[in-house]
């Protein structure tokens, strides 16, 4: 009886280790080969536009124009 219980415990630990290794592999893959489309290419230029904010006196609402 004790031998089969030890066998089950060992397989449970092995399953946990395999899951941890898979999780680490996925994490490393996401870090190394993650979505790099959000990065700005080095040769691109950013244009700075004018921002105009008009706030009417006494009112909470205003307008924001970006050109």
Defining traits:
67 residues, alpha+beta, 2 strands, 48% helix
What's the topology here?
Layout: H1 2-33, E1 51-55, E2 62-66
Antiparallel strand pairs: 1-2
Describe this structure in words.
The structure is a single chain. Strand 1 and strand 2 form a beta hairpin. The chain is of the alpha+beta class. The chain has a domain at 1-35. It has 1 helix and 2 strands. It has a two-stranded antiparallel sheet. The N and C termini lie far apart (78 Å). The longest helix is centred in the N-terminal third of the chain and has 32 residues, at 2-33.
- Report the sheet with the most strands, covering strand number, pairing sense and barrel closure: 2 strands, antiparallel
The radius of gyration over CA amounts to 29 Å
**Computed structural class:** alpha+beta
Q: In which order are the strands of the major sheet placed?
A: 1-2
Low-confidence stretches: none
Order of helices and strands: HEE
Q: Count the E strands.
A: 2
Mean pLDDT: 71
Distance between the termini: 78 Å
What count of helical segments does DSSP give?
1
Strand content: 5-15%
- In helices, the fraction of residues equals 40-55%
Shape descriptor reads elongated
Summarize the structure.
By secondary structure, the chain is an alpha+beta fold.
């Amino acid at each position: 009886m004790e031998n089969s219980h030890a066998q089950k415990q060992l397989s449970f630990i092995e399953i946990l280790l395999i899951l941890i290794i898979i999780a680490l592999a996925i994490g490393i893959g996401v870090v190394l080969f993650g979505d790099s489309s959000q990065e700005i290419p080095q040769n691109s230029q950013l244009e700075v536009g004018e921002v105009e904010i008009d706030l009417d006196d006494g009112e909470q609402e205003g307008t924001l124009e970006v050109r």
